[in-house]
Amino acid sequence: MRFLPRCLETLQNTSYSPLELVVVDNNSHDGSLEYLRQHYPQIKLIELDENLGYSGAYNIAIPQTRGEFVVLLNFDVEVEADWLNQPIELLTREPRLAAVQPKLKSLQNRGMFEYSGGSGGFIDRYGYPFVRGRLFDTIEPDTGQYEDVRPIFWASGAAFITRRSAYMEAGGLDDDFFLHMEELDLCWRYWLLEWEVKVAPAGCVFHYAGAALAAERYHKMYYNHRNGLVMLLKNYDGTRLARFLPVRLLLDWVTVGMGLIRGQFKRAGAVMAAHAYVLWHLPTILAKRRRVQRMRRASDRELGRVIWPGSVVWRYFAKKQRTFSQLTVEW
Description:
The protein is of the alpha/beta class. The chain is built from twelve helices and 13 strands.
C-alpha cells in the first residue's frame, strides 16, 4: 500500500495511449482494495482469493486484458511519462520481438541502476543472472554507458512489456515458480521459439528494490536458487545440461559451505531447501522439460549471443571484475 498511490499517479501521466489499467490483488490485507475502489473506480480490479505469487496472478490476469501488448508492472515503481514510447515502437516495428524492458533505476537513489533489471538482463552458462548496471551486489551509477537498444537474454519482471501472442505461445509464466526467476524462464522459452527480447533504455522506470521481500532474505535466496535450477533443467539441451549443471550444483554447495563457516545458517539452509525441492519435484520438472524441448526451434548454439559463455561467479569473486563492461569486454 505504501507504494501504490504514487505508482498509479505516475501511470496516469503516461504519454502513450490508449492504456487499459488492470490491478491484480493477490489476496492482500493492507487496505489496497479499499483505496482502489475509493480513488480509482475506473481501474479494472481482479481480486484473488489466495496469494498465487507473481506467476499465478499474471497468468490469470493477462487473458482478461484486451491489448496486443501487455505490461507486467510491479506496484513499487514510478514511471516517467515517456517510458512506454520506445518499447511500443520497437514491438510494433519488429514482428519477432516478444518482450522489451525499459531502463530500470533505483527509486531510493535515482542516479543508480536498479538491482533487478538495470539496462537489461543476461545469464552466464551456469544460469547465474546479471544485468547491465549490476553484478551481484555491486550496482553502477547510470552515466549513460548502457543507452543502446540491443538484444538481452531476459527482461525484468518489474517492468516487462510483452507481445500477447508470444506470451500465449510460450505458455506464459510458470505457476510453480511463484516468484523470482520466472521472467528469466519465460524469456528463455521466447528465445527457444525464435522470438527476441530487447532493452529500450530511452524510457525509465524507478523501482524500489526488494520492497516485496525486504524482510524475507531467506525466501529470496530459496526461490532464486530453487527456480534457477528448475530453469536450467527445463531449458538447456541435453549436452549443455550435462556440462553445466554439475558445476552449478558444485557452486551452490560452495555457497552452503561458506554459509556454515561464516555462521550464515539461514543462507545455507535456503540453498539446501532449494535442492531438496528440486529432488522432490523432479518428475514434474522433467515433464516440463519434455514439453519445452518439444517446442524449441532454436539451438542452444544460436543463443550464444545472449547467454554469456563464461562464469560470472569466477570473474566477480576471483578476477574482481565488478561491472558489466569489464565482464563482457571480449564477448
